[in-house]
Amino acid sequence: MTTQPLLSVKNLKVHFYTLRGIVHALERVAFELNRQETLGLAGETGCGKSVTARAILRLIDPPGRIISGSIIFEGRDILTIDEAEVRDIRGSQISMIMQEPKMSLNPVIRVGDQVAETLLIHDRSLNRRSARRQAVDMLAQLGIPDPTRMAQRYPHELSGGMSQRIMIAMMLVTRPKLLIADEPTSALDVTIQAQILALMQTLVSEIQTSVLMITHDLGVMAETCERVAVMYAGDMVEVGSVHNVLKHPQHPYTQGLLQTVPDKANPDQPLFSIEGNVPSLLEPQTNCRFAPRCAHVMDRCKREIPPVYNLNGDHQAACFLHDGSPEAQAV
Question: N or C: which end of the chain has fewer CB within 10 A?
Answer without folding.
Answer: N
